[in-house]
Amino acid sequence: MSKLGIMICGHGSRAKSAEEEFALLAKAIRKRYPDTPVAYGFLEYSAPNIHMGLRALIDQGVTEIVAVPGMLFAATHAKNDIPSVLTTFQEKNPDITVRYGQELGLHPSMITAFETRILEALGKTHVHDGDLYDTMLVVVGRGTSDTMANAEAAKMTRIVSENLGFGWSETVYSGVTYPSVGRGLEMALRLGFEKIVVAPYFLFSGRLIDRIYNYVDRVAATAPDVQFVKAHYLSDQTHVIDTFVARIDETRADHPQQPAGLMASFQTRRAAGEVHVHHHHAEFRDPLDDEKPDDGNHHDHADGHDHDHHHHHGHSHGVYRHIAHPHGPRTMIDEGVCCCFMSQFPQSIIDAEREKLDSGD
Questions:
Q1: 111 phi, psi to nearest 5 deg
Q2: Could you give the 3-state DSSP secondary structure of residue 325?
Q3: What is the Cα–Cα distance from 294 to 344, expressed in whole angstroms?
Q4: Options 3.30.300.30, 3.40.50.2000, 3.10.450.50, 3.40.50.1400; CATH of 4-103+254-291
Q5: For the sheet containing 168-173, what is the strand order?
Q6: Residues 6+ apart with CB under 8 A from 320
Q7: Of the candidates 184, 186, 216, which has an alpha carbon nearest to the alpha carbon of residue 198?
Q8: pLDDT per residue as tens digits for the range 121-166
C-alpha cells in the first residue's frame, strides 16, 4: 500500500528571515494535512535543500510524493530547475513515485491574498467604486528572463487594479527586466497622483524587499506632496495556504482532473533536447558518481551563475536580451544600487550592451 508525502520546493534566500518564513508556511500546510508527512527544501542559499526534504519523506515510509513549487509564477526555476532535481531523484529512486504540480499562479486565492495586503496598507477592509480613483497602484514583480512570467505579474496588476478600482496602475520589477523599481516610481510621479500604493508581489521578506522599500523612500523624499503607501509582502496568510492546498490536491494521484503541468512540459522539452537534467546543489550527489563514466544525461554546468555566494550551482538564467534597456536593470547599477541579478552576467557583456545602447545600435 502506497503512502503519500508532500514536498514544498522553494528557491531559498540569503536572508534568514525568508528561510524562517518559508518554514512557517510549511508548518501551516502540515496543519491542513495532519495525517500526511510534509517536508520542504530549497534550490539554493538555504537549508534543507530539496533532496534533503525528499529523503526525509522516504525516511518516514513515503512511497508517493506530491511536490509543488513554492513560487508565484512559472519561470526558469519552476519550469526547469526543480523538475531537473526531481527527475534525478526519481531516477535514483525508481520505487518512489514523484508527481510535480503547478506554481501558485493567478489562482483566485492568490488574487484575494494580494488584495488583502493592499487593503491592509490603506487601512481598509473593503472599497466602494470611486474610493481609489485618486490613487495609483504600483505592483513590484520579481522580474525574470521569462517573458510569460513577467506578463503574469502584469496581469495580476490589471486584475487587482480593476477589482479594487484604482485610478491608474503600473507594474515594475526588482531585477532582470524593465521597468526597474526606481525608474518606474519616477515615471509614476509624473502622472500627478497624490497617493501611490507600492505593493511587492513577493511571498517572503529578504534583501529585495528591503531594496524595494528603500527605493520608495528615496523617491518619496523627492516628492513631499505625494503620499506613498508601502504594502506588506504576502507571507503565509490563509489565502496563500489555501492556494498551496489547491495545488497539492490537484496533483494527487487520485485527482481526476490532474493537469499535465510543468513536469510533463519539462520531459517533453528534455526529449526534444531543449533542456537537460543537470546536477544541482539542491540534490545529493553520491561521491561514487565521480568515478562512474558520464552517460551524457547529467551535466555539471560550469557556467552556472553565482548569486554573490561562495558556491556555484547548475542552473542558469541565461543572458536577458534587454539587459541594456534604458529603464531596466542597468539603471539599478547606474544609480549606485547593486542588483543581485546582474552578478550573473560577465562585466564584458554588460559593458558591450551599454556601448550598443549608447551608440544607438
A1: -60, -45
A2: coil
A3: 27
A4: 3.40.50.1400
A5: 168-173, 135-141, 195-200, 227-230
A6: 145, 176, 177, 329
A7: 216
A8: 999 999 999 999 999 999 999 998 889 999 999 999 999 999 999 9
